[in-house]
Structure formats: C-alpha cells, structure tokens
Records
---
Amino acid sequence: MYKFLFFFISFSLTAQIRGVVKDSISGEPIPYVNIWVENETIGITSETNGSFSLDIKEEKLLVFSALGYEIKKASSKSEVILLKPKVFELNEVVISIPKKTKELEIGDSKKIQHSQLSGDKPWIYGKLFKFEEKYNETPFLKKIIFYSNSKIKNAKLKIRIYNFKDSIPNEDILYEEVIVSVKKGMQKNTVDLSKHAILFPKEGVVIGLEWMIIEENKYLFEYKDTKSKKTNSFVTYAPSLVINYTEEENSFHFSGGKWRKRSRAISNSGREWDGKIMTPAINLILTN
C-alpha cells in the first residue's frame, strides 16, 4: 500500500495577482522561476513564458529565485519582475579531468512506499552529503539517484546542487539548468553529471529536488477518508518524492524564500517515523 504525506489547506477569499519574470538585460522571459510569498507557505513556479499568478488577498513581499540570477524581493503589486544575471567569481583552480575508472555509491537511500506530495508549493527538498576522507579517491560527482512516485507521465522537476556553509545550503555549484522528466509510477531515476566535472566540496554538498508548480504537472489527487469512507480530492502537482526516515539530521527544505532544517517527526502514535528525520531518497555515485 502506498502512503502519501500531505497537508489539508483551508481557503479564504483571495484575489489573483499576475505578473511576468524577465531578464533585466535581455528582456527575455525567464521560465521556471521559484516564487514565494516571503515567510509564508504560498508559492508558485513561473511558466515557460515567464508568467505567474498567485492567490493572495493583500499586498505581500515576493521572493524570486532562479539559477544564474540574483535573488530578488518585490511587491506583489509589481507586474513585471526583472532579475539581474548573477556574476560568478572565478577563483584560480587546478583543472582536473575525471578518469572514471572507479565508482562509489553513497547515501543508503532505498525505495519504500512512502511519498511526499508537493501540494501546491515549489518546495526544494535537499539532502546533505558530508565529505569523508575516503572520497578523495573518487572526488567527482558522477550521478544522482532519486526515487519518485508520479501519478502522471513525464512530470518535471529541477535538480539543484549546493555547497554547504553556515549549517545551511548555500550557493549553486551546478550552473546549468537540469530539468528531469520522470515516468509514471514508482521509479528509480538516474541523472548523469559526468560532463559537469563537479568536485565534492570539502564542506559538504546538498542535492536538491525542486518541485515545479506548472500547469503540465497539475493533477487531481484522490484519497478515501478513513472515518467517513468518502472519496475526497484536491489539486496537487506531480511527481511525489519517495522519502526515507533517518536518525541523521541531513535534510533541508526551501520555502518562504529561506532554507530551513527539517525537524524530527513527532506523532506520539508509535509510528516508524517518530523521532526521525524525513529525508528525500537520494544517493550519489562518485568517480575518480
């Protein structure tokens, strides 16, 4: 039996605001921008034409973030949002070319029948991998493995990779947009990073899975109420992400424009996840 974790949401009278996100230099629309009402659990993803809409009843401060651009905060009354391209500082480095003669899989994640729904929020779920000295023999990130359970075909999500600083995910270290389409049903997904030649940061690396709240991912989730035995439904966005329960505090989520550390689950019901951390089921394959 599949188990899904979701939140019930109460609705109030709202007004829909609309806008478009564009590049401040080229004027071109920016697709798939992560957008949140600051410090709240209300968010959306811009569509392929840069457009977005949110149901909010008063003026709010919105937080816009996208790979390759500086984070921007703007009033919800602004109809056109201009994001400034980020200038990356290049430090002097010794260039290494992966040999790819060795592999090491790390992470201990596995496929179980517990999944996390997005609801209607563009969460980024991140898993921290701490550096160990033995990784010096296989210092490059070769592949990401994660597990999903989608109700629709070809649901899209983003892959993000961050360094780890001051106890939270920090800067992107994958500078190219990587969008993955996952098949319907329970799937093991593999993302090849070989061409990027990313070295495992000594301070640790966070692998992020970003839900995309876009029309093509939308579907109606149905479930049966255990008390009334009635079938209920609500709109959510694919795919669901398989989660594992761990003792290690290595899980983070991005919401409301900020990174937050996942707390231990407490239900007082004697469930297997009581006192543990819900962590996205992600593994890494390293190479030399």
Note: The domain at 103-287 is CATH 2.60.120 (Jelly Rolls).
---
Amino acid sequence: MTATDTYLLLRAFCDELARCGIRQACTTPGSRSTPIVLSLVREPGIECFSHLDERCAAFFALGAAKASRLPVAVTCTSGTAAANLAPSVIEAFQARVPLLVLTADRPPELREVGAGQTIDQLKLYGDAVKWFFEVGVNEATPAALRFIRTLACRAYWTAVEGPPGPVHLNFPLREPLVLDEELPDDPTARADGHPYVLREPPAAPPAAQGPGPHPSGRLLIVAGAGTPDPTELAAFAARNGIPLLADPLSGARRGAAAVAHYDLLLRASGFTDGHRPDFIFRLGDV
C-alpha cells in the first residue's frame, strides 16, 4: 500500500460524504490524521474548521450539527486525542445529534508494542455511538473504491436516521502519510453527482382531510427538542385541527394549533379529564 492508495481511498470517501449531505467538518492537528484532514480540506463540498484542541473541535461540531440538523464530521489523530472527543460523543448520543467521528489510528503492527500515541481505539466510545467500524485502508482497487463509497453512505445515513446519533469510524493509517504526486482520476463515482448508494424516499402519507374529528379518535401532537421540520409540523397541525404541545426547543411553537402555557392546563385535573386524547404523537426529545 502506498500513500497514493491511502489518498485515493480517502478522496473517494470524502467525495461521497459531500454527495450524501455533509457540509461541515472540524479538524485538529496531528501527523497520523494528515491524510484524513487533507482529504477533507480538498473536498470542495465540505467547509472545514481548524481547531487546536480536540475537545473544542468536537463541541464545535456538535453545535454545528444541532444548528444544521445535518451530520458534521470531526477528525483527530491517534492516541489520547481520540479520548478527548468522548464528552461530545456522549452528549451527541444522549441528545440525538448526528455526528461523524473520524479517528486516525496506528496500523495493527504498531499496536501493543509500545509505539507512541497509541491506545486501544476499537469501540473506544462503547455504547455511546450508533455504529463503530474499523476502516481498512489498503490498495485502491476499483472494488476497494466502491466499498469505501458505500461505507461513507452507510455512515452518513446511520448517523441521520433513526433516531440520529454519532457514528465512529477508525482509520489505521500507515506511513508515508504525505503525498508527493498527483492523484489519478477515480471512475467509480456516479456521473450524475448522486451518492453511490441511493435511498428510496419514504412513502407519501395519505392526503389530509382537513379539520374535524379523526376516525381514530382525538389526536394530540407533542413536540420536543430535535423535532424534524418544525415549521411544517406546526402547519400540518393547524391544517388538520390537531392540538400541538411544543417545547420551546422544538422550534414548533407557532401557528394556530400550538397551545400556549400548556403546562398550566395539564396541571388542571378538570381540564385533563375532559380532554384526554386517544392517540399521542411524540416527536423529538421530551
């Protein structure tokens, strides 16, 4: 394996992240992570923010992901640098924030032999990530390039869907870590600019019938922090006459269906006894 192989694979990986929807990445200093950092920086579809400290980078990425509701990548070098990302990874898991954690690592032959900047990074964050994968960076064959593109797609959609959360990919990188020649073209990308792995869109819901009693009974929508598309949710509730109890952090406390001061109403037993819903739809964290 040469530096050209490493950079070809990582270029394809970052290209695929951008095609999926990654728009921001946070980088930190370190020699082992150089190929990842340079590949992210050279990807025109991703805006990179350089940080001197891993904790700062990770919490910046966490805030950016919260604001954009899209996964943000954060990368660091090997060893205890990766451990410094743990607080933000745990918070992302608890708050259901999509985060893509890309840690550089020593190759297997440099583990458990006293090499510097080396710790056990396999499943470093335990159950605080939705998915962990050790990425083998080998020869950049067409099959390997196609594989790493599918891997980028899976990492992105795992972070986004489900509830959202962090995904950890660990990259054991061998020297040389810098490139001294131009990279050849990569024919494995889709010519139309779409991701390598295409997802089928969810089925369209049945058309709304407008305000009035629902055949399933009395409905109620409860929206918490992290509610997807809060503006459309508020409009949907208003169109269909469904009461909406929206936490301020949901962004959905707006429109004719939003109930102001609902916390006071819910403390009144006389009101709750007479307005008990048959079905409650909960979105986000409450």
Note: The chain has two domains: 3-172, 219-283.
